[in-house]
Amino acid sequence: MKPGRFLHRSLKVDWLFLGVTLALMVCGVSLVYSATANAETPVYESFWFKQIIYFLGGCLLATGIVFLKIDWLKRLSAPLYIVSLVLLCIVLSSVGDVTKGAGRWIDLGFFKLQPSEFAKIAYLLTISYWLSNHPVSLHKIKTFAVPFLLFIVPFALVLKQPDLSTALVFIAVTYVAFFFAGLTLTDMFLLASPVLSVLFSHSQALVFQVLWGLLICAVVFALVRRRLPKILTVLFLAMNILAGYASSMAWNMLEPHQQKRVNTFLDPMSDPLGDGYQVLQSLTAIGSGGLTGKGFGQGTQTNLAFLPEEHTDFIFSVLGEQFGFAGCFFILVLYGIFLWRASSTCKMFTDPFITLITMGACTIFLFHIIVNIAMTVGLMPVTGLPLPFLSYGGSFAMTCMVLVGGILCMRYQGNRQ
Amino acid sequence: MFNIQDNEGIQTRNWNVLVFMAAVIILFTVLLIRLYSLQYTHYDENLQRSENNRLRRVELVAERGFIYDRNGEILVRNRPSYQIALQSMHLPRKKEARDTIFNRLLHIVDKDGVRLFDSLSLDTAFQRTKWIKNRPIRILEDASPEQVSIIEEHSSELPGVVTLIESRREYPYGTLASHVLGYTSEISEEQLKLPAFAEYSQGDRVGQKGLEQGYDTEFRGTNGMKLVEVNASGREVGQVKGVESRAPVPGLHLVSTIDLKLQEAAEAAIPDSVKGALVAIDPRNGEILAMVSSPRLDPNIFSLKKRERNRGWAQVALDSMRPLTNRAISGLYTPASVFKLATAGAGLESGILSESKYYPKPCTGGYQYGARYQKCWGVHGNLNVVHALRLSCDVFFYQAGLEIDMTRINEFARRFGYGEVPLGIDIPGEKGGWLPDSISFNQRNKRLGWRWARGLILNLSIGQGQLVTPLQQATFIGSLATNKGVYRPHFMKELRDRQGNVVRRYEPEIIRPGTMKPSTHRVLLAAMDSVVNHPGGTGKRGALPGIRVGAKTGSGEWKKGEKTHAWYAAVAPLYEPEIAVAVILEAAGGGGAKAAPIARKVMMAYFGIEEEEANKK
Questions:
Q1: Where are the beta strands (DSSP E) in B192-336?
Q2: Distance separating alpha carbons of residues B401 and B399, to the nearest angstrom
Q3: I want to staple B474 with a disulfide (CB 3.0 to 4.6 A). Which of B2, B74, B510, B582 is the partner?
Q4: What is the DSSP letter of B39?
Q5: Partners of residue B99 in chain A, C-beta under 8 Å
Q6: Distance (Å, rounded) from C-alpha A26 to C-alpha A30?
Q7: Which CATH number describes the domain made up of B261-315+323-616?
Q8: Is B142 left (phi over 0), alpha (psi -120 to 50) or beta?
Q9: Partner-chain residue, chosen from B28, B55, B89, that has the shortest CB–CB distance to A281
Q10: Mutation test of the interface with chain B: which of A350, A367, A370, A387, choosing the one with the most B Cβ atoms within 10 A?
């Protein structure tokens, strides 16, 4: 092999991206080790060792994916999508393993397949493929019909499981995909405005009322500027105003105990005996870490098992306690570089399919990171979303590695200008 | 942007990527601000909380509901039970320190010098503390007050060793009605996996068998929870201020239909050495007044500590007398001559039999059917239906059965409670019986190659070959006497909350039509009357002074050369029935001789007749 060819090949791999990914995996295994390790558990049964196995398996998978041709991926998207729907249906028909109430797994013997994880990837492929050939525009409402259908079926199936947090991942992916498939920033604002309306008008506080008023003004301004079809203009206005009033009306119609349940979900600290307990412990753990942390393996809160599920959903509080603000900052910087390198992959190519895939993958990562960390620091409701590369868990580790493989594949296989 | 060569499109795309990264930076900044506030601004506060105030969630277990008899006597209650346990998170983390605790525990002796812990199980428990961190691991179950005080004395030297109070079931009357009440035990791994137990968690005590299982959700109540602060050695310092604890909602009390007085009389009448069962039921609403299955077991053994519990369990589980089975609802026996009432009833209902009908062949000790000669148990001569029932003559019913045919007989029997469908009693484990006809007989005996033949009707019409439970037998005779429908037999009278308010009441429910022509009813009552009160009746040993009892005896053949199963089914007062009793004693002999006196004792208890008084008259 000529040195020039080798150089050419090596340019096709984003070494910084790869390095950051590996660094995150090493951090993840160390944290799982510090959260769960004890001298008596045999190595091959310990969580950290299993996590290494999952990552190694994931790396193999990712390497394999790098050598797939982009055309094959496009052709594979539709069949994979259908398979994922079938798997979701199977899980719904209660064949799945019933652990902790919700059936979300299919036991394959050697591996517990989580169809919703599979569906995330299949959906990303499909929606990217479709949108890369059929851009959307608010001026032509028809363009939304197929993407909406593609979205609603897996979304409803996942929601039915019930797995609200994973269902929200589907919304996030779709939302960002629309952004890269023709919508402008103003359109994005309009799409998000009803949700903001609900949030703002929920509280009776003056600040929120004023905010809501401002929001409506902004919506009107945006509508005037965009000159959308009349139906859409009316629809967006109506949705915003309705969202405001209907939400408070619906709220008043709820029974007190239902209101309490929603409140507990939104503000876990209001129920310190239930979900709030975990958040309370997590906040104490993170806060007691200080600027530099207590040191590796020295976490009193996590090591004394005050924190339930410390190695899965609440792994970030282990980090916060043992490495303090510095550790958290470091990890966030790693995530930042990771997302920056991943998103800039698409800048090298003109194929919209590549753009949509990379940005979709970035969205999945970002959504998990934000929702999980915000949960551990008490900013968001307690949901079951794991932290990419850090949380213990086979299914999600696989998903992450497949996505990493996909991003690498885009760079390796894409046609340069 | 979608025109690939379009420069503007690429610019927009790159701009959008920049927007995405800007969003990332904004969101990460928000998180960092929050982290900074937690880890710098509120650092001291959080550090102190993590050092001193260790918060722990403690589940407050709801008290299990009691079981009362119909007059308010307590049949099942709770007692406190002390558990010595290891709290993993408060054990020292250094190996040497753990070993000291281990050795200290090992050398603790009670006043007789016996060690409280054996090294093997203690070692296992210490091993398990490494896996199970969030809940205590029991090292001494159901400790005596003396053992608890010894541990408490040494508590300062034993960090991580705690005493927990649990409530366990107590059955003050021991074996009394043990099959009806059931018992509780720790939920098993298999049960935890079932969807029906989704709300249960490991270590919960759950009802097994009997009323304990049938009404487990009602007895359980809802567990509460509190947030407490514990000190460094794991002992509770106090409740966290500002956090309301969720109080447990105690389970409901069950007022059963059992009559303690009657149950005691029934238990006394059947010795534990005899296999058998007794059911006393109120035919007017299906309330079960007493139910005995012998031999019995003592449900208290399931509340004892593991070693004693296992010993007790091994004893009952391996006993060849099968004391675990509730024979009254799941024992299947041939109904024997009691079934002749169904044959007679079907005949009278269809007009084939009447009080004035005599069959051409009198009873000469047997009946020739084809090549077969079927014997009768005596020589009775020429009889009508009332006489035939009184003397329990087989020859009469051979001829009657052939004429009436099984379809009619089985229809009548099902109408009054017999049959394959269980009666739906509110405790688990009830079995349905079997009323064979040509189709079901061939189906069931296909493998054996037996075929239905008309000759089988001879056996079936005198009740040899069907299967019934004692519960069905009591229900049958009771509803026959009332002629007002078959009520679902049940044990639950009322469910009450702690304040004594009735939460739920059992509504009597008719499950089978259970009615016949008044003329049929009259003849059957006359026959039941003469079985007991005629000097020649087979059940005369069941008679009571002052109360008119109607009954039918039976002697079920089950194995050649063995004594017959003794059956006796009675109802009293015959013309205004209040109580129906069915008794079976396995391999005891004739029903009139062995089973009737037992039912008589139960009825005496019901009507408040003393023994001397009864013998005088």
A1: 205-208, 224-230, 236-239, 253-256, 276-282, 287-294
A2: 5
A3: B582
A4: I
A5: none
A6: 6
A7: 3.40.710.10
A8: left
A9: B55
A10: A350
Per-residue pLDDT of chain A (417 residues; tens, 9 = 90+): 455 566 676 777 889 999 999 999 999 999 888 877 665 667 777 888 889 999 999 999 999 999 999 999 999 999 999 999 998 888 877 654 444 444 566 766 666 778 888 999 999 999 999 999 988 888 888 889 999 999 999 999 988 877 888 899 999 999 999 999 988 899 999 999 888 888 787 767 788 888 888 988 998 988 888 888 888 888 888 888 888 777 777 777 777 777 777 777 777 667 777 667 778 778 888 888 888 888 887 766 554 455 556 677 888 988 998 899 999 999 999 999 999 999 988 888 888 999 999 999 999 999 999 999 998 888 888 888 899 999 988 889 999 999 999 999 998 888 765
Q: Check CB contact under 8 Å for B133 and A305.
A: yes
Question: Looking at CA atoms only, how far is residue A347 from chain B in angstroms?
Answer: 6
pTM above 0.80, yes or no: no
CATH number of B57-256: 3.90.1310.10
State the best of A264, A273, A339 to mutate against chain B, taking most chain B CBs within 10 Å.
Answer: A273
Distance from CA of A126 to the nearest CA of B (A): 17
Interatomic CA distance for residues B60 and B226, integer angstroms: 7
Output the CA angle B578-B582-B587, nearest 5 degrees.
165
Residues 6+ apart with CB under 8 A from A169: A120, A364, A367, A368, A385
Chain B: give the shortest CA distance to residue A131, in Å. Answer: 10
What size, in residues, is chain A?
417
Q: Which amino acid, A413? A: Q
Instruction: Please name the amino acid found at residue B460.
Output: L
**Interface contact B28, partner A, CB < 8 A:** yes
**B31 with A277: Cβ contact below 8 A:** no
Residues of chain A contacting residue B55, judged by C-beta atoms under 8 Å apart? 277, 280-281, 284, 306
Residue A235's Cβ-count burial label (10 Å; 0-12, 13-18, 19+) is middle
Joined together, the tokens standing for residue B552 give 């039918």
Q: What are phi and psi of B486, to 5 degrees?
A: -95, 120
